[in-house]
């Protein structure tokens, strides 16, 4: 083992070079780790590469980490010169061992802005660091900065191409635009995978879930399909992590975003609805004069159909989420996260229903109004069985259907037809069905924690929701 300063320098330089060569030999390394080894037993490199896993023997870390740390600090203090290639290697080694060293990430930001590094390489380094340190806040912060650079690059390319085509009098290249969209979609998918792996490695990983929310807010804003897919894919994850509040908080965020996006269509009779109808009528007046059609009525009918489809989708989102809560609470008794999530979902449903009731006052849309009025009646549970009856009481095959990860959340055409006939969707949550669910849990439960959570939920229903009806 090295003892003198010269021997330590030689050793560390060789280890840094071995790490760099390992990435060159295998660019598909997907995990890093430290191998417990108190001392060097053989005259060989402490860097071990097996398949796609990179390991560092622990005995060399106490020499390696202080060396690269001091080298980088001397460089930042302008006391020691390092070329760009050496900076890339030193920061890579340092961040794999200590990803919370902010100075190293800042150096890599400068290298990225100078064009020495590409953003994908930095995302890859952060992904490897998160396999060993899944909660590293500095790594998540740097990833968001890199993603912002990627989005700015894509937007600038799109603007430049659009200006170029406009100057030449040509139309924008749809193939190039589609390529940019595909690249952004792949980046989004990779980020979802990184967040999912980090949340599995560390329970209640707040940094990973916060980053996941940020990615959707900045890279998928307004994309209803992405939020639907996320809500569907997360069903299996929360079913396997029933005590993780962070996962359920993420589902609450997805539900809120879906409600906001699906509720953008103005209600009939509102000022936005009237202005859009007037605008559509004036815009297509000449067309109606030529062919005798009624574009205003057709536009209103199409808008009404879209509004009913969005309304049905919101109902299904709440209905399926309450079913999931019921199934998990009955299958895994005594987990507070499940009861907190149910409380939050029902609170969202209660306020969304009240807002739509106010918007529909004086509306001519009798089909949608019928559903809202029936679902808001706390004393009359919906026909066809409610959420409170539980998935195992009268519908034995329904639990498996609700837990299907690939089940689509989008409504089917027959659901819109049911709305037009004024038939209430089965399973719409009400105060009565929630009381029935709590009673069924208390009647057949021997778990003390489960009983305590159920009683607290019933008290919340009476004191918070009951007083608002």
From TrEMBL:
Compositional bias segments (type: Polar residues): 360-374
Compositionally biased tracts (Low complexity): 270-290
GO cellular component: cytoplasm
GO molecular function, one term: protein prenyltransferase activity
Chain intervals with Basic and acidic residues compositional bias: 405-416
Coiled-coil ranges (or none): none
Gene3D superfamilies associated with the record: Protein prenylyltransferase
Residue segments, region Disordered: 264-290, 360-422
InterPro entries reported in the protein's UniProt record: Prenyl_trans_a
Entries under Pfam families matching the protein: PPTA (PF01239)
Assigned keywords, A-Z: Prenyltransferase, Repeat, Transferase
Protein origin, superkingdom: Eukaryota
Cross-referenced SUPFAM superfamilies: Protein prenylyltransferase (SSF48439)
Family membership: Belongs to the protein prenyltransferase subunit alpha family.
Protein name as catalogued: Protein prenyltransferase alpha subunit repeat containing 1
Source taxonomy: Eukaryota, Metazoa, Chordata, Craniata, Vertebrata
Gene name, Swiss-Prot/TrEMBL: ptar1
